[in-house]
Specification:
The structure is a homodimer. Chain A is of the alpha/beta class. Helices cover about 45% and strands about 10% of the residues of chain A. In chain A, the strands form two sheets. A five-stranded mixed β-sheet of chain A has the order 4-3-5-6-7. Chain A has a two-stranded antiparallel ribbon with strand order 1-2. Chain A is elongated, with a radius of gyration of 20 Å. The structure holds zinc ion (2 copies). The site of one zinc ion (ZN) has 8 residues of chain B, from loops.
């Protein structure tokens, strides 16, 4: 029999929504919070409810934001930059910000092209990206999608958009390990890849 | 700069209350919930608040329970058993229940003796255990504390309590790996250790 009470079992089941958390880890997390850190558990519960409810996407770059415009898009020195970096996720944006190497603006795809999963240009907001490019103030688009097959296909598609509007396109330099995921790179690899980017 | 908004940063910080979750993992968890599973994030938030608020301890065996008595202590066929198994935590109780080898009652210490951390007999409810033993209906106490130094010291202390009341004491059989933690054992090792328990 399971000796877990209904509330405890609900908590354990709910913890399995976290990536990399199976039943055993979920149980350990639940017990640890109950035994040693109820205040932390309460704070986490409240933070989750607030975040899930109030965090939307920036109307300009699509990164996560509870404001209409994120901090970067609200900063004129960045939102009027002629450099636009396209990334797959907010986590990738965050990883690039942490290198301190880039002071332009971003466009966050929140995914990558994957026709089999029903993810096409519309799902990645590429119509909105095209409108932004059509304004004519972007001189270079830096493609910083993941160096995976789907990331490359996505980059190729966006490069075509740019070519049609005669906008320069570059891609992060090799140095990014093939098949890896951008958000796990150390900052210095990412810095090198950034400064060594080449024309697409 | 960090590109995380205040709500997002609060969520990431709050996730670090979970055991084994550092800043990088916390960020990944936050993004994954926001991107792909907001419903799961909301459920987890609600489950955490309910659990932290409403889960207390069983008045008899001290395991986690939102009722005054847990399911085992509410079951007469178990709560009147002459076998009482003492465990360090609710997770250990749960691990033993899953072997299906034991149908007696439990006493959950919620810790182990650790004078340097201010954890003495009172903190482990040993006064209450002594009262339960004094009723005279327990014939054997099975000590299933962790096979660590502190677990052994705790077992020794409880064995003394039992000897004073002329109650038999046994300890889980060797087979439990020295220095290991009970809740991570596979069920069959634990079953063997249970059935091969020896007089203390
Ligand atoms: Zn933005
Ligand atoms: Zn109980």
């Amino acid at each position: 029999m399971t000796a877990n009470t209904p509330l405890l079992q609900q908590l354990i089941d709910a913890l399995k929504a976290l990536p990399g958390v199976g039943p055993k880890t979920a149980q350990r997390m639940a017990f640890q919070l109950l035994e040693r850190n109820r205040e932390g558990g309460r704070k986490l519960g409240t933070a989750l409810l607030h975040a899930m409810e109030h965090i939307g996407q920036c109307q300009s770059c699509r990164t996560f934001s509870e404001q209409e415009l994120c901090a970067i898009c609200s900063d004129p020195s960045r939102s009027q930059s002629s450099l636009l970096c396209v990334v797959g996720s907010s986590a990738d944006l965050q990883a690039i910000e942490q290198t301190g190497q880039f002071d332009g603006r971003y466009f966050v795809l929140m995914g990558q092209l994957s026709p089999l999963d029903g993810i096409g240009p519309a799902e990645l907001g590429l119509d909105r990206l095209e409108q932004q490019l059509a304004k004519g103030d972007v001189e270079e688009v830096i493609l910083a999608t993941n160096p995976t097959m789907e990331g490359e296909a996505t980059a190729y598609y966006i490069a075509e958009l740019c070519h049609r509007q005669q906008i320069s396109v570059s891609r992060l330099a090799q140095g990014v390990p093939v098949g890896g995921e951008l958000e796990y790179l150390d900052g210095s690899t990412l810095s090198h890849a950034f400064s060594g980017r080449k024309r697409f």
